[in-house]
Structure formats: C-alpha cells, structure tokens
Design goal:
346 residues; alpha/beta; Metallo-beta-lactamase, Chain A; six-stranded mixed beta sheet; five-stranded mixed beta sheet; 31% helix; binds zinc ion
Length: 346
C-alpha cells in the first residue's frame, strides 16, 4: 500500500513537472518588451505627472552648417529633467518648397519650437521627416510634424516593431510634463530595406542603410550636392558614445561607409564638431575598443575583470566617460568573445 502510494505520488509529481521539463523555450508574444539581447525589459508603469506649468522653453538656436542645412545641437549629457531631453542633434534641410527634418528631437514641444525658429529663416512647411534610428531622443517630435504639417515620416521599420502608442519610453518617464506633454508615439509611414537615393523638394538625398551598429537598425543621410552627411549616433564627439544597444563591428562598418562619401561637413548625433575631423574620435574609440578587448580575450581575461583590464584612457576627459565607457567595454566583451575575425584584416 505504502509503495503504491509513493509510486502514485511520483507519477503525479512527474506529470505536474512536465510543462517545466519539456517546455524549455518561451514563446514571445510581446516582442517589443525585448532588448537587443532578447532579454525581457521590465516596463514599470509610471503614472503620468500633471502640471499646469507653461510649455518648457527649449530656447533653440539653429546653427547654419551649409547653404541649406541648419542644425540644433543638444548638450553632452544623458536625458534629464533639467535638459528636457535636449541632448541630441537634429537638422533641417531647406528644399525648394518645403523643409526636410532630419530627426525630430525628444518631444512634441521640442519639434514645435524648432519649427518656430526655422520658419523665421524660411516660411515653408515640413513635408518630410527622416529618422536615423529608434532611440527616443531622436524622433519623439514626429507627432508634431505629422499632426500639424501632415508630414510623411521615413524611418527604420524597427520603430513600428518596438514602439507603440501609449508606451512609456525613457523620455516619457524622465521629462517633466511641461516638456513632454503633447508627445505621442506615431508610427513611421515609409521604410526602405536598403540604401536608397531619392529627391525631396529638389534636394538629392542618399539614405544609407548601415544596419546593426549603434542600434538595431541605423541609417544616415548623405547630401551629395551639398557635401554634407548627417550621421546621427554612429558618430559622437566631445563625449563617449553609448553602445548599450550596439555592436563594435557594426559601428566600424558604419564609419567606413561614412568615410567612403565625399563630404565637407558631418553632423554627429551628439557633439559639436562638424568639420572633416568630426568622425575621428568615434573611429579611434571603436578601433581601440576592438583591439584591446580582442587582446584581452586572447589573454584569457574573464568577464568580471574586463572593465578593469580594458580602459579607454584616451577618452577620460570626454563627457560621460565615467557613466558609459566601462559599460561599452563590457558590452564589447560580450560581443567579441565569440568573434572569429575578418580575414581581410589578417
Ligand atoms: Zn541613439
């Protein structure tokens, strides 16, 4: 009797544990909750703050980069309540009968105020917005251009996959209501699979696909007649980059694609240097990271010690070095530990 009971219990226990034994793979029903490594992102809901304060004044001053390109340059910081997300660069390109916006900044209010400043230069509508990548400091102004100007939004398809109306992005959680109010996540209207040349309002553009580099899917914009390249976050200067969602090898490829174009001015995603040296810091940062991390892997340095062994001393004086560089090295280690090398470099 006792043995029978034990047997019965064992069978019952086995049956109960079956789903755990056999069901090792998890079915992903909500892919936008995954980060670049397919880890679940715990999205803690933050109650929207109310505020009757007047709209945040971004005090935006466009800087003329070339004959028909103006840009707004943000601070070299992480997004905070104090900078209201004004910590990335965005640009306006003057066409024959409309403006083209390159990235739209961190909020509806930012985009609205950027347009107010630009319309003093030329009173044209914004009919096209072109977006570099999915990070929310670069495109949360899209709904201003969509709702007020009826603009077409061109961008990476990853925005429509990873972001949905009502999602609380980093910016939505961080900023005060007076800055973020009015901001809504709107989808991209048009995407391309590969590098595409097109003309908007008389401006020849090459929208260059560099793929997985700084983010899951990066693009830059080349203006061949103006010899200007707007590259967003695959280049930063004056500060250390954030490679949390990126890969070193993809970054190096992106920088090669940028170098291969003929330009006199380059506008980075963050940073103020726009001359022919604008990409140099990023090239050096990623080359050194790759070289040193690969050397450390070869020397058998373990994950726990990698950020002690590999430092980017050359960048110690740059903004955000202490916030981001160790994290970038660790991320590079995760990536390059399995790296088998590219033959053309040997
Ligand atoms: Zn970014």
């Amino acid at each position: 009797m006792k043995i029978k009971l034990i047997l019965l219990f064992s069978i019952l226990a086995f049956v109960l544990s079956m789903p755990f034994i056999f069901n090792k793979s998890v079915t992903i029903t909500d892919p936008h909750k995954l980060d670049a490594d397919d880890n679940f992102i715990i999205n803690e809901w933050v109650e929207p703050r109310e505020s009757a304060a007047p709209d945040w004044n971004y005090n935006l001053k466009p800087v003329k980069v070339s004959d028909r390109v103006w840009c707004f340059f943000g601070t070299l910081e992480m997004p905070t309540k104090e900078n209201a997300g004004d910590m990335s660069n965005s640009c306006y390109i003057k066409g024959d009968d409309s403006w083209i916006a390159w990235d739209s900044g961190p909020s509806y209010n930012f985009a609205k105020q950027a347009y107010a400043a630009m319309s003093k230069i030329a009173n044209l509508p914004v009919k096209t917005v072109i977006v570099s990548h999915e990070h929310d400091d670069h495109w949360l102004g899209n709904n201003y251009y969509k709702q007020v100007h009826g603009a077409e939004i061109i961008g990476t398809p990853s925005i429509n996959v990873n972001y949905h109306k009502g999602d609380q992005t980093r910016m939505v959680k961080t900023l005060y209501q007076d800055a973020i109010r009015g901001t809504e996540l709107v989808p991209v209207d048009k995407s391309f699979k590969e590098t595409t040349k097109f003309t908007v309002s008389g401006v020849n553009l090459e929208y260059v696909h560099v793929g997985y580099a700084h983010s899951e899917d990066d693009w830059f914009l080349y203006l061949p007649d103006d010899k200007v390249v707007l590259v967003a976050d695959v280049v930063m200067n004056g500060r250390v980059t954030s490679n949390r969602d990126g890969i070193v090898i993809g970054q190096i490829e992106a920088l090669k694609a940028i170098k291969s174009r003929d330009w006199n001015h380059l506008v980075p995603g963050h940073g103020f240097v726009t001359d022919k040296t604008a990409a140099d810091e990023s090239i050096q940062y990623f080359d050194l990271t790759k070289k040193r991390v690969l050397q450390a892997v070869e020397d058998g340095v373990k994950a726990d010690d990698i950020t002690k062994t590999v430092t980017l001393e050359e960048f110690r004086d740059k903004d955000l070095y202490y916030t981001l560089s160790a994290q970038n090295v660790f991320r590079a280690y995760e990536e390059l530990e399995m790296y088998s090398g590219d033959d053309d470099e040997k």
